[in-house]
Specification:
Layout lengths: L8 H19 L5 H17 L10 H28 L4 H6 L7
């Protein structure tokens, strides 16, 4: 179920659990391209969860923590999309278009 409230922790925690599961599967040397696409998409969604929206609701410390997480997941998503561009060179342009840009 979608939860549009970016400050909600339920959806974010579910995404973090999904990321941990995909990381575990990757550490077990699963070679599925779909797994790698899913991992990149999860990081992209986590990146958007920490976007600088409604920052007035958060204290300065919480806003700084959100920015740090936003940048962390942006770097991860971009790294995973770069890996996908190498693995699936026929669709490399599409993966490059999915690269995440910082909102901060």
């Amino acid at each position: 179920m979608a939860n549009p409230d970016l400050g909600s922790t339920k959806a974010t925690n579910n995404l973090r659990t999904a990321k941990a599961m995909t990381d575990r599967a990757d550490s077990l040397k699963m070679k599925s391209l779909y797994l790698k696409v899913l991992r990149a998409e999860i990081c992209r969604e986590l990146n958007s969860r920490y976007a600088p929206v409604d920052l007035w609701r958060f204290t300065d410390q919480q806003a700084a923590e959100r920015k740090k997480k936003h940048l962390y997941y942006m770097e991860l998503a971009n790294k995973y999309y770069d890996e996908l561009a190498v693995l699936d060179s026929a669709n490399a342009y599409d993966y490059q278009k999915l690269q995440v840009k910082s909102d901060y």
